[in-house]
Structure formats: structure tokens, C-alpha cells
Amino acid sequence: QILTKDAVTTQVDGVVYYRIHSAVSAVANITDVHSATFLLAQTTLRNVLGTQSLAQLLAGREEIAHSIQAILDIAMEQWGIKVARVEIKDVRIPVAMQRAMADEAEAAREARAKVVAAEGEMNASKALQQASMVLAESPAGLQLRYLQTLTNLAAENNSTIVFPLPINMLESLGQKNRGG
User: N or C: at which end does the chain have fewer Cβ atoms within 10 angstroms?
Assistant: First the structure.
């Protein structure tokens, strides 16, 4: 078990592959080569991983393994041992932490979705503002847009539409009839 830099308790399985290249040094310098190698590897793993955050540990397992291999190789050279390879096989985190990380990721996704929706609303409101400015300059264009909207409604819903006419339009029609 290891406590990471960001205070997350993890269980890490690691493997050290080594060979004895000098039997005389191994017998003369240490009582039990295998036990000493195991303890040194375990201690080195804890020391190195204790300086990493959980995210660094999960993302950089290979680099961490190379770092551990270099440290072990230097330390065990005097014992007549050559470290061939170090692998970090498995990193397990508590179930409660997994749930918390999943909740955090979901909240981040929801926050990004809200930002995207808000940006869409902002763009739509800017487009509506520009359209209203164009229509404000042309009353006939506004009435044509109004009629187009009514046509779309009639095509989609196939129902009776009560068509209100703007009062200024009725006034202009009345003036033409009186003058004619």
C-alpha cells in the first residue's frame, strides 16, 4: 500500500526482474539476496510513488518503472545483482475513491455541456438581435416574415389560423379606399 503525494491510498503491484552477475559479491555482501532485493524494491517503490500524485502515477507508469529500475540498479550493483526490468503491474484505488472520481468526471462533463449550451444561447440571441435590426429597417420585410411564419405553422399543424392584421396596415388600406 502506498500513500500518493495527493494523499490517496493505493495498492500497487510491481515486479522486479533481476539476475545475479557476480555470485561472489552476492554471497560476500549480503545474507539473503532474494529477501534483500524484495525489501529494497518495496521500499524504493513506496519512496518513488510517494512523490507522485495519483494522476501522475496512472499516466506515467512506464517512466516511474524506469526511474525505479535505475535506483535499484545503482543500489544493488555492489551486491553483484543486475536489475533487468521493473514493471508496475497494477494500481488499485479504493472503491469510494473510484466513485468520487466518477462523480467528479460527470460533474465536469455537465459543466462543459452547460457552457456549450450557454454559448449557443448567446450566439442565437446575437443572431436574433441582428435580424431584428434588419427587420426594423423594413416594415414590409417584417410583415413578409410574419406571413412566412404563418405559412410554416399552417403547413405543420394543418389547422385554422386566425390572422390578425396590424392596425397600421388596416389604416393604410382604409385611406386608399377613401381616396379612390
Answer: C
Q: Is residue 47 part of a domain?
A: yes
Residue with the three cell numbers 507522485:
52
Task: Say how many domains are in the chain.
Answer: 1
Helix (H) / strand (E) containing 179: helix 167-179
The residue with greater pLDDT, 44 or 8, is 44
Encode pLDDT of 113-133 as tens digits.
999 999 999 998 998 888 888
Structural domain including 77 reads 2-93
Residue with the bigger pLDDT between 52 and 157: it is 52
The dihedral through the CA atoms of 30, 31, 34, 38 has a sign that is negative
Helix (H) or strand (E) holding 136, with range, is helix 95-137
